[in-house]
Fold these 2 entries.
Entry 1:
Amino acid sequence: MTAEPTTPTGHTGFAGVADVIDQFGVHGYLADERLATTVFLQAALEKPVLLEGPAGVGKTQLAKTLAEVTGRRLLRLQCYEGQDETTALYEWDYGRQLLYTQLMREKVGALVAEAPDLASAVDLLADQESAFFSERFLAARPLLEAIRSPEPVVLLIDEIDRADEALEAVLLELLAEYQVSVPELGTFVAVHTPYVILTSNNTRDLSAALKRRCLHLSLDYPDAERELAIIRSKQTGLADELARHLVEVVRGLRQLDLRKAPSISETVDWARTLAVLGTKELTAEALAATAHVVVKYDRDLRRTLEALPRLVDPNAEVPDHLHGHGHGHGHGHDHGAHDHGPGTHTHDAGPDGAAERLAKDKPGRHDEAYYGTGNLAPARAVPSGQGARSFAARRPF
Ligand SMILES: Nc1ncnc2c1ncn2[C@@H]1O[C@H](COP(=O)(O)OP(=O)(O)OP(=O)(O)O)[C@@H](O)[C@H]1O
Ligand SMILES: [Mg+2]
């Protein structure tokens, strides 16, 4: 496989999948083969990548690391509900146009002085329109900036599923052609093809048109070895044996019926917390006292506290204060084969069991944990006025 020619950033490209793994590793991102293959193909084929997966599995970090590795500038478009093209693509700088018009009042007056009536004055002004709809008054937002950038960039379009479908339509031209059309000015074609990474938490389906233009990769929680390697690489200060055990516990928690499953970053936070507290042994008590680092809902915390003793040690006697309330079955209850992760069955009856879940949650526990936010809160505050703006039907795509 041949390496790409040297780019203006000095980065010589990726010689192959193993090279991607190496280069990302140097910058602290531990990529597995599947992910590295996608990155390699992205660079080789100049295709955008769409990363989908639960919160905290390294989607955003992948784009940041790609920028570091390649020495490219990172341009980021953070998507939110109600977002429109004026914050994504470009907008005309009306304030500046107005200022110029006022400063040139005399000039404008002289221009229309000869006009016999209003209609001809308007015609005279219209002839000057191009002076005001020129690049001078164009405020480029991240998408246009990526296309016009004189040096190669990584363009991160983060959490695209939070934006409305209309914004996806705006992206199509860019993703397929690496160009942006501004009706008043024409078409801007990328000087250097940007590496484009889109991320999604899967809170809604993305359009087939968008998916078709991208290499698609579903990121999930890593296997135990890679998660341990990530923890090691973050130098959390937690002894290796404890970190290994912690990873097993977290993997067990992910099997529970939690609203928000612990992410990689939360495992790292937990490891740091335990290290700072000088934890020498990973007991259910030590984990219970710090479980709020990874578990963010009361109901999840209850379930976690209930599960921790058997996750830490499947044969342990469960102290009463750590056991759930009126769980209804004895201690030492077998929750399944150890190597499948204890607690793999999730729909146990309890005081906060199926009925309550049905009442509160969207159907499908996987959705809720997977999406991270569920329908609990708006994903992002919508800046006032944004939602009300509509997409003008002036875009041909
Ligand atoms: N493969 C990895 N190698 C090294 N660190 C990782 C890896 N995956 C995740 N991390 C760590 O997890 C943290 C969270 O990752 P990131 O912010 O990219 O998650 P995300 O998938 O974008 O989550 P969200 O959907 O919530 O935005 C990163 O800051 C990084 O420290
Ligand atoms: Mg992210």
Entry 2:
Amino acid sequence: MKCSTLGIGLAGVGTVGSGVILALRRNGDLIRDRTGGAVDMQVTKALVRDLSKPRAVALPQEVLTTDWKELVADPSVDIVVELIGGTTDAFEIVAAALKAGKPVVTGNKALLAERGVELFALSKEHDTPIHFEAAVAGGIPIIKTVQESFIGNRIHSMSGIINGTSNYILERMTTAGLDFETALGEAQQLGYAEADPALDVNGWDAAHKAILLATLAYGFPIDPAMVHVAGIEQVRPIDIDFATRLGYVVKLLAVVREHPNGAVELRVQPSFIPKSHILASVNGVFNAVAVHGDAAGESLFYGRGAGQDPTASSVVADLVEAARSLRQATGHRGFLPYRESGQLLPIENTETASYVRFDVTDRPGVVAEIATELAKEGIGISGTHSPVNPESPDADFVDMVFLLHTCSFGKLQATLDRIEQLDCVNSSPVVFRIEKL
Ligand SMILES: NC(=O)c1ccc[n+]([C@@H]2O[C@H](COP(=O)([O-])OP(=O)(O)OC[C@H]3O[C@@H](n4cnc5c(N)ncnc54)[C@H](OP(=O)(O)O)[C@@H]3O)[C@@H](O)[C@H]2O)c1
């Protein structure tokens, strides 16, 4: 078989970009053998911000550039890999590559979730694919699973733990009794959390990934502004404590589910999940996605959701696929919208049982006041508790916890808005979903 070297234009030589270079050096021969000699790849141009920065992975000086236009236009570049992150320069690079007919590989979930509509349209217009396995769950081949392996399934649901940083923080809060700030500090020290961990802890990193999965499974572009996202910043040791006592584990859960009327439920929030469910034992920086297809039934995909080598593994797999498509035209393989009338289920219409924590002034009648408001809306209470701090049993302000029967989120939210106005309630109630998985 013909084997001429394909040139890679690598935009970004950071954590993942360096991993890609190392993986190609380590396993380039293996890839060549496994593809029957068809795929041989070499990084011929690499984009960085700072040419003088010392790098663990050395590249010849003439390969490096700080000008993305030079990288995309270079005739030695056949495939463009975008690993710089962000949604501005990254957008320009991907758009320019597609217009030049150069297949793109990216690990950038924020870019595709926020600006995927424009990029997938360009991909279609120029019949040039965007591959993005590394954008969701690092080394777990979940994009390929949804796009290819489950192509003959109607996907009923996908529930996932798809942000390793928040999962690590929640695990440390659970097993070591740390508070949120201490656990976050530990994650940063270990290099699991970014210096700016905002997208990890506010739920948006997981939401971007969930949006991509839902887009593939249900065939219509999803506006991020329509997605309900809550992060783990409000999780307190008391919530972890309650969850443990009640037989649950707190996880940042992404839920994607198709309803019988075709509407798609899509939300990300800290949730109580039963200790006995397999997702409850996904710990540390690991990710897992449970996919329920009408034919395949329930399948679980588990593995390393981030990090240099696992993410590079997905990028390299996409590179091989992009290289094959260049060698043998297989047509466009990015996301093609196929469902015109797709719609998200309004978050108000989603239903679960819930755990609600109130910060209240401790005086007689508080429980009754809150319970009365809940009863007015027919929201059932399955339990209530107010832990006493043994060091200050007469404290004026206490946490009060209610476990509530299943009701719509809209009804719950409206009732909580009213409860928040009560004199005895000092701040916005904190809600956790209790999931039936
Ligand atoms: N890290 C992970 O585990 C992981 C997992 C899955 C997906 N991803 C995604 O992969 C992408 C890359 O992540 P990373 O962790 O590898 O990032 P990173 O370590 O911060 O590396 C970014 C690289 O891009 C270069 N760069 C950034 N902005 C640039 C610009 N405007 N112009 C030119 N070069 C620029 C940087 O240059 P300098 O080296 O000169 O600073 C650096 O080489 C992101 O989209 C991320 O979401 C990462």
